[in-house]
């Protein structure tokens, strides 16, 4: 019997290797995000952004780019029989959940590693917000990965999954987006980072992560049964 | 009569309890009508005018009970989803579906009465700085996706299981969402529950409670009626299957809605 | 703060309550239609059942008396 840890590493490694070889999701996500910045530049008719406008543009773009990746996270499992293999393997099934959350988290982190600097170059006159922003990015990524994995695994077995993922996910991440944009709005303040309320909002992000981690961990088993 | 010997009653478990549900339903609907009539009579004939808001405050006695009942129904739907996953009993899934369905219907009324109240109070049909209404809209939108989600899953067991997972996730989301939206709203509006005198006068509280019970009973009555419908339509398709022996089941009950069927 | 004139307020309040009552009515009529449909399907099933029970006899009778008409013997056998 393989330990959960080994199984987790094996599954995560498989996902990352597959992505590295096929490049199925990440390049599309990055391209999408950068193009969206350009659309915002003309849609809002601004060349620099600050405050809540900067936070809104950044998080909207990351959210929609993330949905592109979430849509695909379980497709290969379905098409190539990964689900059946997991069902047969003598490992705890929640390992699949945690490994997918981790994979999605890494995708999002790589996406942001490229896209956030681009955002700063495009729109931010002052880059001092980027340091503390990392904390918000990590917290929001975790919540986003948990919910994305949950929703994606629910939608993958249905008709019209491409439609269902954004439909189900968008209302669910509204609180996360509220907290993430509110926490970043102060950081992007035109007069330099403002930490008023930053900690409280970070706490809300953490609470959100915790609750849905628990929910996901509790219910994921039922999504795999057949 | 040839069909009087056909003993579906003994073979379908819930069938024998059907009559009891029917009788309870009658008492329930009479109580609902009485409470609603009494509540609305109190609203329009007895309760004193609100000092700050005047006549338009009377929407409060309709809007707020509807919202509270709908939200409780959403959470109860999550609990039933949890019980379905725990026990594997399809009746809990049917309950969960009906709870959510009636609450979504109530949700339409909440949003419309809320918009009318906003128009009467602030002059706009929609105000973003009213956190409860905004968070209700988000919750409502989330639960609206419950229908296409169910519809998209063909396998009935899987549909029931996934719908329960949805109900649980969304149930956990409801309080979290209210907290986040309320926190985002820095401006605090005067609330009817917390007036300058610090609390609702007794007469208003009584009126509110009567209306709340009436709306709650309405929710329960509609849920029970829907459940009876599901049960009967399940039995009809059972009959049809027995009669035809082709397993087609028939069209009653639709494809999204779970039907309560005995094996 | 915007203040609706008293007559405006009366209109808003009544339209809110009216909307609620209309919605309940519509919902109940939808439920009624659903029950009616179930009732009709049940009636159809019962008819089918009767016809099915009648059929074997009808076949026998048809063999005995070919010209005895179509409906009358059927009805008798089902009772």
Could you walk me through the main structural features you see in this protein, from its secondary elements to its overall organization?
Chain A has 226 residues and is an all-alpha fold. Chain A has nine helices and no strands. Chain A has helices at 4-22, 26-44, 51-72, 75-79, 82-88, 94-123, 130-155, 161-187, 198-224. In chain A, helix 2 (26-44) runs antiparallel to helix 3 (51-72) and helix 6 packs across helix 7. Chain B has 263 residues and is mostly helical. Chain B has one domain (24-43, 53-187, 197-231). Residues 1-20 and 247-254 of chain B have low confidence and may be disordered. The longest helix of chain B is centred in the C-terminal third of the chain and has 43 residues, at 202-244. Chain B contains eight helices and no strands. Chain B has helices at residues 8-11, 18-46, 60-87, 90-122, 131-144, 146-152, 156-184, 202-244. Chain C has 79 residues and is mainly α. Chain C has one domain. Chain C has two helices and no strands. Chain C is rod-shaped and about 80 Å long. In chain C, 8% of the residues are buried. Chains in contact: A-B, B-C. Chain B binds chain C through residues 2-3, 6, 40, 54-56, 58-59, 62-63, 66, 105, 108-109, 112-113, 116-117, 119-124, 218, 222, 225-226, 229, 232-233, 236, 239-240, 243, 250, 252, and chain C through 1-2, 4, 6, 8-10, 12-13, 15-17, 19-20, 23-24, 27, 31, 34-35, 37-38, 41-42, 45-46, 48-50, 52-53, 78.
């Amino acid at each position: 019997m393989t330990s959960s840890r080994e199984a987790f590493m094996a599954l995560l490694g498989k996902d990352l290797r597959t992505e590295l070889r096929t490049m199925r999701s990440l390049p599309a996500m990055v391209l999408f995000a950068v193009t969206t910045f350009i659309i915002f530049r003309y849609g809002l008719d601004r060349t620099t952004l600050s405050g809540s406008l900067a936070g809104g543009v950044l998080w909207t773009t990351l959210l929609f780019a993330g949905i592109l990746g979430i849509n695909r996270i379980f497709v290969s499992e379905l098409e190539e029989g990964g689900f059946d293999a997991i069902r047969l393997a003598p490992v705890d099934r929640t390992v699949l959940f945690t490994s997918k959350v981790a994979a999605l988290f890494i995708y999002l982190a790589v996406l942001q590693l490229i896209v956030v600097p681009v955002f700063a170059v495009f729109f931010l006159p002052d880059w001092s917000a980027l340091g503390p922003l990392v904390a918000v990015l990590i917290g929001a990524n975790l919540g986003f990965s948990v919910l994305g994995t949950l929703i994606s695994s629910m939608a993958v077995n249905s008709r019209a999954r491409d439609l269902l993922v954004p439909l189900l996910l968008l209302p669910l991440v509204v609180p996360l987006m509220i907290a993430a944009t509110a926490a970043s709005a102060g950081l992007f303040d035109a007069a330099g980072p403002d930490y008023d309320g930053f900690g409280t909002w970070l706490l809300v992000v953490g609470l959100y992560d915790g609750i849905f981690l628990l929910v996901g961990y509790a219910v994921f088993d039922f999504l795999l049964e057949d | 009569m040839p069909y009087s010997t056909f003993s579906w009653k003994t073979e379908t478990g819930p069938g024998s309890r059907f009559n009891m549900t029917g009788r309870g339903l009658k008492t329930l609907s009479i109580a609902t009508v009485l409470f609603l009539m009494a509540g609305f009579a109190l609203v329009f004939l007895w309760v004193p005018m609100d000092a700050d808001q005047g006549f338009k405050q009377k929407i409060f006695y309709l809007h707020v009970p509807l919202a509270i009942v709908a939200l409780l129904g959403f959470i109860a739907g999550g609990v039933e989803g949890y019980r379905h996953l725990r026990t594997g009993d399809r009746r809990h899934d049917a309950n969960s579906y009906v709870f959510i369905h009636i609450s979504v219907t109530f949700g339409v009324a909440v949003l419309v009465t809320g918009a009318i109240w906003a128009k009467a109070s602030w002059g706009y049909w929609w105000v973003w700085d009213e956190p409860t209404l905004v968070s209700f809209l988000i919750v409502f939108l989330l639960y609206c996706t419950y229908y296409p989600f169910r519809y998209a899953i063909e396998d009935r067991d899987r549909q029931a299981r996934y719908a329960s997972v949805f109900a649980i996730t969304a149930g956990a989301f409801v309080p979290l969402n209210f907290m986040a939206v309320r926190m985002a709203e820095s401006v605090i509006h005067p609330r009817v529950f917390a007036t300058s005198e610090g609390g609702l006068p007794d007469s208003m509280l009584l009126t509110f409670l009567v209306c709340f019970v009436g709306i709650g009973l309405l929710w329960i009555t509609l849920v029970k009626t829907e459940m009876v419908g599901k049960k009967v339509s399940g039995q009809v398709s059972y009959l049809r299957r027995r009669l035809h022996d082709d397993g087609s089941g028939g069209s009653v009950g639709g494809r999204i809605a779970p039907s309560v069927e005995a094996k | 703060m915007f203040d609706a004139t008293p007559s405006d307020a009366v209109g808003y309040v009544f339209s809110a309550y009216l909307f609620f009552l209309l919605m309940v009515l519509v919902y109940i009529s939808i439920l009624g239609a659903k029950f009616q449909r179930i009732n009709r399907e049940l009636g159809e099933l019962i008819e089918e059942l009767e016809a099915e029970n009648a059929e074997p006899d009808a076949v026998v009778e048809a063999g005995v008396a070919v010209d005895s008409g179509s409906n009358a013997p059927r009805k008798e056998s089902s009772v």
